[in-house]
Amino acid sequence: MSRAEQRDATRQRIVDAAITAFADQGFAASSTRDIAARAGVTQGLVTYHFDSKDTLWRAAATQIFGLLVGTLPDRPRRASNAERRAAAREQIRAYVRFAAEHPEVFHFMVDAGRHDDDRMRWLVQTCLAPRFSEITADGGIGSVAADRAAAPHAYYALLGAGSLIFAVAPECRELTGVDPTRRAAIERHADLMAQLFVPD
Amino acid sequence: MSRAEQRDATRQRIVDAAITAFADQGFAASSTRDIAARAGVTQGLVTYHFDSKDTLWRAAATQIFGLLVGTLPDRPRRASNAERRAAAREQIRAYVRFAAEHPEVFHFMVDAGRHDDDRMRWLVQTCLAPRFSEITADGGIGSVAADRAAAPHAYYALLGAGSLIFAVAPECRELTGVDPTRRAAIERHADLMAQLFVPD
DNA sequence: TCGTTGACTGTTCATTCGACCAGCGAAGCA
DNA sequence: TGCTTCGCTGGTCGAATGAACAGTCAACGA
User: Fold this and answer.
1) A2 φ/ψ sector (left φ>0, alpha ψ -120 to 50, else beta)
2) What is the CATH number of the domain that holds A39?
3) Which of A59, A144, A177, B98 is the most buried (most CB within 10 A)?
C-alpha cells in the first residue's frame, strides 16, 4: 500500500471510530484516547491527522450526514396526486430504514443541536440546511404541513418520530420487549410512519 | 430556618442544578463541580448530600420524571368513541406543552436510553414502565396503534415527534427561523401532533 | 543510491475529574 | 449553660483529559 493510501485508510479508521464514539457518548464525553483505541492507533496520531477534537468531530459529522444523501429516493417531478402521495410514503419508509441503520445521525443532531455554539451553527449550515429545504419542499413531507408555517414542525415531528425508537434501542428492548434493530420491527415502524404522515 | 429546612432547601437547589446540567450536557459530561457552582455551593457538599454522582442523577431523574405525573389529563373511563378521540387529542396536546416546558425529560431519556447499563435499567423500571403501560392503554394513544404489537412503535413515535423540536431549540431557531419556545409555536406543534396522531 | 519527506510512536504537560477527609461553627438538646 | 450533632468548607488524592513534542523509520523523489 502506498503512503497516500495508508494515510487515507488510517484517517478513515479514525473517523469511523469517532462516529461511533461521538454518537455513543456525545462530543464532550468522548475522549480522543478512546477513539484512538477503537481505531487501533495511538492517541497522538489522532491529533496528528485531525488537529483538534473539534476538527475530528466535523470530519465525522460530514461523513455520517453525507450518508443520508443519495439514500432517500428522488421525488417525482411531475406526477398525479396519488403518485406524489405514494412517493412521499416511500421517502418516509426510506428514512426510517436509514434511521434504523444509522442512529448515529440522530445522536449527532441532538448532541449538537441543543447548544447555541459554533458546532451547532456549523452543523446547521453545512449538513442540515441543504437537506431541510429539500425535505420540506412540495412532494416531500410537504403534504403533511397544512401551510408553509407548519413545515418546521412537520420536519421535526418526522425526524423525531422516525428516529427515537432506534436511538434508544436498549431502553426500548427493556421497556417494551421489542428489539427495534430487527428487520420486522423496522418495517413495522416504517408502516406506522407512512400511515401517520401520509394517511389514506 | 431550621436545620432540617436548610438541609432540604440546599438539597433541592443541588437537584435543580443537576437536572439542568444533566439535561444540558448528559451524565458523563456533567461535573459535580459545575453542578455545585450552579447551585451556589461547594463541590464537597454535593458528595456530602448525595454520596455519588450516580445517586445525584437518580434523584434528579426522579424529580423531573415525577413532574410528568399529574400533568397529563385523565382519560375518560366510559365514553363514546368521539369523546375518547377528543380526550386522546387533549392528552397529546398536554404532553406537547409539557415537552416544551421541560425538554429535560427527553434529554434524560435519550442520554440514559442508548446504553445497556444499570442507569438505563433503573430508569426503565422506576420512571418509564409505570407510565408506558398507562400511555399505551386503550383511550390513550391506543387509538393510534392498529394492534397491540404496534403500541411500542406508536409510543416512541409520539414521544419523538412531540419532543425533538423543543430538545434542539437552538438548532431549530438557526435552521428554520422558528423559535419553538414561543407559545404560538408550542400551540402550532400541539395542533400538528393532535392532527397527526388522531386524524379526523 | 542517497537525502528528504511524512506517517507514526511514546512521552510529557497543565487542567479537570469524582471522591475523600479533617476541621469549623452554629443549631439543637439535656 | 454546656455538650453534641451535623451541615458545610477548603484542601488533597490518583486518574483521566486534549494538546504538544521530539524522535523513529520506511516510503518516496532526485
Assistant:
1) beta
2) 1.10.10.60
3) A144
Q: Which of residues 29-48 of A touch strand D (CB under 7 A)?
A: 30-34, 43-44, 47-48
Claim to verify: residue B25 and residue B91 sit in the same structural domain:
no
User: What is the 8-class DSSP label of residue B179?
Assistant: -
Q: A2 to chain B nearest CA, in Å?
A: 39
Q: Which of A123, A150, A160 sits opposite B164 (nearest CB)?
A: A160
Q: Which nucleotides of D are covered by protein (CB under 7 A)?
A: 6-11, 16-22, 27-28
On whether residue A63 sits in a domain, the answer given is no
Q: Do A116 and A152 have their domain in common?
A: yes
* Cβ of residue B32 lies below 7 Å from strand C: yes
Mean pLDDT, 10 residues at a time, over chain A (200 residues)?
90 98 98 98 98 98 91 74 87 96 98 97 96 74 69 96 98 98 98 93
Q: Which of A79, A91, A74, A82 has its CA nearest to residue A197? A: A91
Residue nearest to nucleotide C27 (CA to C1'): B3
Q: How close does chain B come to A35, measured CA to CA in Å?
A: 16
Each residue's pLDDT tens digit, B123-132: 999 999 988 8
